Amino acid sequence: MDKTLEGDGTAAGGVDLDALEELLESDATPETCMWLSELDGFLTGIAAGPERIPPAEFLPVIWGGEGPGFDGENSAPVVKSIVALLADIAAGLEKGPEAVLPVFWESEDGKEDATDWVEGFLQAIDLREEAWMPLLERKRDKAMLTPMLLLARDEEGNPLMPVEEGEEGPSEEQFADALEMIPECAVGIYGFWRLREMRVSPIVREMAPGRNDPCSCGSGKKYKKCCGG
């Protein structure tokens, strides 16, 4: 398969995806490193998730289990690009679905394949599975993951989402719809966690001083002779 990049091969925030792709496939990264589509899905899952995950924790996953310092001098440019891409993705999620541009594979017949992208996103969930539970445990909110699960495959290439006995699997039209829905679902998931972060601070009402109490302005006068007059 050949990779397909949106537009001119530049992420929404300006990261050169063609250059990043070359770095990921170069000696600057280990052979087990994620490729661009999987990396894009992984970083989207991190950016849309419930908690901030530091590079020291997510970089080893990108490398395929090897530590981030396998070759500090050569890996510096790719690490910088990965962090910049994460920032771009987060900014896109904040703006809305139109600013979310997933990087998918393209098959020989020109069809988009989100298998690697979805695998990357699900790996991001695995990093904080317990923190994701508020969304995973609610059927209505978990539905935002349905398009991704529909596109996911196991190691043998079989659909990850089980099909009930006697039922037909998803149609080509359903797969196409799932691809189209990924940006909207990613933004919805991002919004779900941001809303949970919002907390209304309790309003503390101070009791008004009695008329014969010292005025709170510090004048030394009674309240009724000063600010309460």
Automatic annotation (TrEMBL):
InterPro entries, per the entry: SEC_C_motif (IPR004027), YgfB-like (IPR011978), YgfB-like_sf (IPR036255)
Gene3D superfamilies in alphabetical order: 3.10.450.50, YgfB uncharacterised protein family UPF0149, PF03695
A Pfam family of this chain: SEC-C
Domain of life of the native organism: Bacteria
Protein name in the entry: YecA family protein
Organism: Granulicella pectinivorans
